[in-house]
Amino acid sequence: MASFHWSVCVVLLCLASGVIATPPRTPVNVPFYRNYMPTWAFDHIKYFNAGNEIQLSLDKYTGTGFQSKGSYLFGHFSMQIKMVAGDSAGTVTAFYLSSNGAEHDEIDFEFLGNRTGQPYILQTNVFTGGKGDREQRIYLWFDPTKDFHSYSVLWNMYQIVFFVDDVPIRVFKNSKDLGVKFPFNQPMKIYSSLWNADDWATRGGLEKTDWSKAPFVASYRGFHVDGCEESVNARFCATQGKRWWDQKEFQDLDGYQYRRMSWVRQKYTIYNYCNDRVRYPTKSPECMRDRDA
What we know:
- This is Xyloglucan endotransglucosylase/hydrolase.
- Catalyzes xyloglucan endohydrolysis (XEH) and/or endotransglycosylation (XET). Cleaves and religates xyloglucan polymers, an essential constituent of the primary cell wall, and thereby participates in cell wall construction of growing tissues.
- It is built from two helices and 17 strands.
- The protein is mainly beta.
- The protein has one domain: Jelly Rolls.
- The strands form three sheets. The chain has an eight-stranded antiparallel beta sheet. A seven-stranded antiparallel beta sheet has the order 4-5-16-7-12-13-14. Strands 1-2 form a two-stranded antiparallel ribbon.
């Protein structure tokens, strides 16, 4: 798979000539309002740089969030985020894709705050057909409160890949042949939120939110959406072979990317449901496709 060095991809399809454009390497600023809208507590969102950067704030009364205007089947989605600085225990900053309904599909980045001086935990999860419980947790190899970093999802018919900057940290392969549902027919919206979850987020709820440190602020920019948008007349996007993220080189990681993911697993992973024999005495079938599980 080609490496990811962009924040926003503008795809030009040369279908007549049979040439498929590759992702550009030059970042393009896309204002928040083009693809997104606030969802609640509008007074807790601030806008900067002509809408190219926003801040979400959390206080003891409410958090806030935003969502994409459209729903998508497959694509590449990313956000540049700078996490809540200082004592962030009890807070959760989230970036995820989700469909509607009880048997929903969902692809999650959740950043779990911590006491000052203790590292953030990044939790990822995948829901298919309403079933989740596929948590993996890592420490990051940098301080996510000091600067913006890119968090991305690549989703096609073959795999879901989670990226931190250019580094793949997790792959969820299509394992329908093993009896595991895979997201392919429920359009998802993109969401981000900042909220209080001190009943579970930090040390299982032992560390509570210190409201004397409020408001807690997370910053966002690089509002990238490159997906097949659902329309009224087409609930399935027949994208195979027509978009850069659907090409053969994006059906699996390459050798270098697998080595990078193994580096994350060996040095920074603190929990993988595939290896949890207390909660799951029988390993889930999709874990057979996880090289490091």
